[in-house]
Amino acid sequence: MIISFDIGGSAIKGGIARSETDIVPLGRRATPKEDFAAFVETLRDIIAEIGEQPSRVALSIAGVVDPDTQRLTCANIPCIHGRTLAADLEAELALPVLIANDADCFAMAEAGLGAGRGHRIVFGAILGTGVGGGLVADGRLVNEAGGFAGEWGHGPIIASVAGNPPVAIPAYACGCGQKGCVDTVGGARGLERLHKTLHDLDLASEEIIDQWRRGEEKATRTVDVYIDLVASPLALTINITGATIVPVGGGLSNVAPLLAELDRAVRTRTLRKFDRPLVVPSECRIEPGLIGAALLGLKANAAAS
Q1: Structural domain boundaries of the chain?
Q2: What pLDDT digit, counting tens, does each position of 227-245 carry?
Q3: pLDDT tens across 26-51, in order?
Q4: Distance between CA atoms of 258 and 208, rounded to whole angstroms?
Q5: Which CDD domains does the record match to this protein (predicted)?
Q6: Cβ(131)–Cβ(152) under 8 Å?
Q7: CATH topology (fold) of 2-104+286-304
């Protein structure tokens, strides 16, 4: 048995996994952001409540492990940012610890138990507040040892002109320090940013989507530009990885007509042509971070035995 954790900025969620078909979520606790000792104690308390010693701990976390140094970048939880977290937790908990990025865990969950079943190469895309992704090939997460594979949201790639008729798009500054990243336009905040640029209107993404679905002219223009901007980098990602399915998670994945439009646009731009949906809603709608971390932990246990 392993225990998996989904570590977020506000909450820590736990789960017990005995097999791929036996993954049971536990409750949640508030995340101690500033106190590492309290962070460890929260994990220790959840493990103790199970009443059984796990063989391994697997964490899904909104951060990236450097594959060279094994140090974690996790800006929203200061007490673990910059730590060699796996080694530190192993010393504290006396258990093997595996850590993976939350988008990677999402991709793993979709490849193993979701929309990616039966596909050799699965690219899991996140269209939430921002943009993320993870890559699974032949059932294995490419970032098993940490790393940045799948991060299609970053890099100066966004087109300077988009939509029909074409309109100039600024190279928006990104939180990663670059300009013109997919992350600046592809998530919910990006959709809002585009609407402000095109129409000088401040609307929440939910309002823009609602107006688009009702055929409102300005929202329709914004979504047209959005699809044009996002489809090309996603098609390029598919060409590079060879993915044959792209499950999508995050808030915007709940808008089925938007995903359908994106899928149609992407399939006109990929080198390999698909006569079926390629960009699809995720199927692991409940706790994909926990599921993905659990699958990674179970695979690590199997490899060690």
Answers
A1: 2-104+286-304, 118-281
A2: 999 999 999 999 999 999 9
A3: 888 999 999 999 999 999 999 998 88
A4: 12
A5: ASKHA_NBD_ROK_NAGK
A6: yes
A7: Nucleotidyltransferase; domain 5 (3.30.420)
